[in-house]
Amino acid sequence: MPEFRQDPVIGRWVIISVERARRPGNFIDPINRRRRDDDQACDLCVKPENPVYTLGDICVVRSRQPSATSGQQTSIPDGQNGLYEVIKDVGIHETVIETPDHVSNMADLPVGRIREIVQTYVARFNEIEQNTRLTHALIYKNYGLSQFAHHACSHVMAMPVASLEISEKLSGAQKYFRDHRRCVYCDLIEREIKDKKRIVVETDDFLAVIPFAARFLFETWVIPKKHHADFAQGIRGHEEGLARIFKIVLQKIKNGLDDTAYNWVIQTAPFRRQDVARGKWRTIDVDYHWHVELIPRLTRMAGFEKGSGFYICAIPPEEMAEYLRDKEI
Ligand SMILES: [Zn+2]
Ligand SMILES: [Zn+2]
């Protein structure tokens, strides 16, 4: 019988369907097979002319930036004021070119290089935060699917609004704190260390786990043991630690899942000056906990999942964790 599991942060139910279970190693989607062999000219192999930031030979280029008048929120004048809201012309998108060499998977970069990439993210966050029109920033990576996926790069995106998914997470963590006076992620770390069975890797300062209610095959969360709401502040002194656990997890996924495509996102608290003023995120420093969510792209979302909002995961999280835990790197 399928088992319903609830995500403790946002309350989302996931169906762990043992009937649909397949053996690890037998779940690679053919969409992942197409990408690797095409070797057309690579834009990112060319040193960029006007990087907005460099650290060693890591280069950051900006592909979108807000204009001077951007960020005004208006209602579309349709007689129903407030129904359709628009924010014009705002947002920053930067690409972090992680190496001048044509290496595609971050898993293949040395730990020292990954540490410098993490330091680059922090530097970009600190600068972007100065722009008061932007309230939220994300760092993410798509490996293996997009047109630039052949050359290791990641993205920093800053926006005037938070996505629904981020808002759900922030509100869920806030609600958990109201009910328990504790951070849900700190509780989750404690529980996972006690249970052990969903841990992929544990290091001194980080934990990589398959979440209890995983939505996707081999979805992995990398959570710092030290509580902090903000990535850019919480990471201080742990840049090397994040680089190390990243390297291990990415190599396990590469070796164990046939070099699958994946994406990851660093989930951090918003730049919250405006909201703090209104009291919306009053407890955010204690209730939210930055972390990384990594999703291998092994299956397409089925119509049922899109329409119903229920995710079906074909392998129990404990089995996925065991498989990756045992995978050589
Ligand atoms: Zn290249
Ligand atoms: Zn915490």
Distance between the termini: 35 Å
What would you call the quaternary organization?
A: single chain
CATH class: Alpha Beta
Strand content: 15-25%
Small ligands present:
zinc ion
User: Under CATH, the topology is which?
Assistant: HIT family, subunit A
Shape: globular
The CATH superfamily turns out to be HIT-like
Structure summary, number of beta strands = 15
Helix/sheet category: alpha+beta
Strand order of the largest sheet: 3-4-7-9-8-13-14-12-11-10
At CATH level 2, the architecture is 2-Layer Sandwich
Sequence of secondary-structure elements: EEEEEEEHEEHHEEEHHEHHEHEH
Largest sheet: 10 strands, antiparallel
Helix amount, in percent? 25-40%
Structural domain tally: 1
Summed over residues and divided by their number, the pLDDT gives a mean of 85
What are the main properties of this structure?
15 strands; 10-stranded antiparallel beta sheet; globular; 29% helix; binds zinc ion; alpha+beta; 3-stranded mixed beta sheet; 22% strand; single chain
List the SSEs and their pairings:
Elements: E1 3-6, E2 13-16, E3 53-55, E4 58-64, E5 73-75, E6 85-87, E7 92-97, H1 111-128, E8 136-143, E9 153-159, H2 164-180, H3 184-195, E10 199-202, E11 206-209, E12 220-224, H4 231-234, H5 239-256, E13 262-267, H6 273-278, H7 284-287, E14 291-296, H8 303-308, E15 311-313, H9 317-325
Parallel strand pairs: 2-15
Antiparallel strand pairs: 1-2, 3-4, 4-7, 5-6, 7-9, 8-9, 8-13, 10-11, 11-12, 12-14, 13-14
Helix pairs in contact: 1-5
Bound molecules: zinc ion (2 copies).
